[in-house]
Amino acid sequence: MCIQVANLFKCYGKHPAVKGISFNARPGRVLGFLGPNGAGKSTTLKILSGSIPLTAGQVSICGLDIQQNSLATRQYIGYLPENNPLYLDMYVHEALTFVAEMHHIVRAHERIAEVISLTGLEAEQQKKIGQLSKGYRQRVGFAQAILHDPEVLILDEPTSGLDPNQLQDIRLLIKQLSSQKTVLLSTHIMQEVEAICDDVVIIHQGQIVADFPLNELAAMYPGHRLESLFMRLTGPPSTRI
Ligand SMILES: Nc1ncnc2c1ncn2[C@@H]1O[C@H](COP(=O)(O)OP(=O)(O)OP(=O)(O)O)[C@@H](O)[C@H]1O
């Protein structure tokens, strides 16, 4: 297992956002991390990426405990946060050079060129990030996240707000990257999960309410498609179908 989460808790002050969740993610697969607004998805992804501390429980990335090996585990992780914060005044190539320096990437010039090609940023690399469309900004976020060739990719709603063409390109990129990585993907788009995910975890009010391989959905939840299952498990009682 590349990501192992055991009995993870997170409280913001007195507010419990994540209440003892456990799940695993495997290499070569995309795990769709689903849940309604406020369920605890971003909180969990921030903890896994080392952005915020956990309150209790264990998380290991590629066999290393994130609390005991905070710096080492970050090298294994590429993280694209929700809303993709970027330095808008930087040029694309300049921003990637900056990230490469932070990661001490050897032969950075070649690696940046490789990632620019992979993310389809060739024509935009000399532009300022602030001049780019949302789809291209998202590609820059991806490029930054994969530059150090991490084993694990953590993507928080990476396609939200993209037009159908950009959305399709980004999904293809995720699928392409997943053959050699462990991908944890948070999304609200059920077609996206059906198109690119291998495994599904559903979180509701800080607790896991389902965890299954997507190809076992019909056997485990007869009569349900993903959307109806999601609504049954996370909707208010009056709307559960
Ligand atoms: N920095 C914070 N301080 C206090 N409470 C927070 C903070 N961040 C999140 N929360 C609360 O924790 C809970 C989980 O939030 P989180 O952002 O993890 O949910 P989410 O599943 O990612 O939601 P969404 O789909 O809307 O992005 C919510 O009740 C939220 O209000």
From the alpha carbons, calculate the radius of gyration and give it in angstroms.
Answer: 18 Å
Named CATH architecture of the largest domain: 3-Layer(aba) Sandwich
The amount of beta strand, in percent, is 25-35%
Tally of helical runs? 9
How many structurally independent domains? Answer: 2
Quick summary of this structure?
With 241 residues, the protein is an alpha/beta fold. It is built from nine helices and ten strands. The protein has two domains: 3-76 and 150-239, Rossmann fold (3-Layer(aba) Sandwich), CATH 3.40.50.300; 86-149, no CATH class.
Walkthrough of the structure:
- With 241 residues, this protein is α/β, with parallel strands linked by helices.
- It folds into 2 domains: 3-76 and 150-239, P-loop containing nucleotide triphosphate hydrolases (Rossmann fold, 3-Layer(aba) Sandwich), CATH 3.40.50; 86-149, no CATH class.
- Strands 6-7-8-3-9-10 form a 6-stranded mixed sheet, with helices on both faces. A 4-stranded antiparallel sheet has the order 2-1-4-5.
- The two termini are 34 Å apart.
- The chain contains 9 helices and 10 strands.
- It is globular, with a radius of gyration of 18 Å.
- The protein is 35% helix and 25% strand.
- Adenosine-5'-triphosphate binds next to strand 2 and helix 1.
- Adenosine-5'-triphosphate is lined by residues 12, 15, 17, 35, 37-43, 82.
- Keywords: ATP-binding, Nucleotide-binding, Transport.
- InterPro entries: AAA+_ATPase, ABC_transporter-like_ATP-bd, P-loop_NTPase.
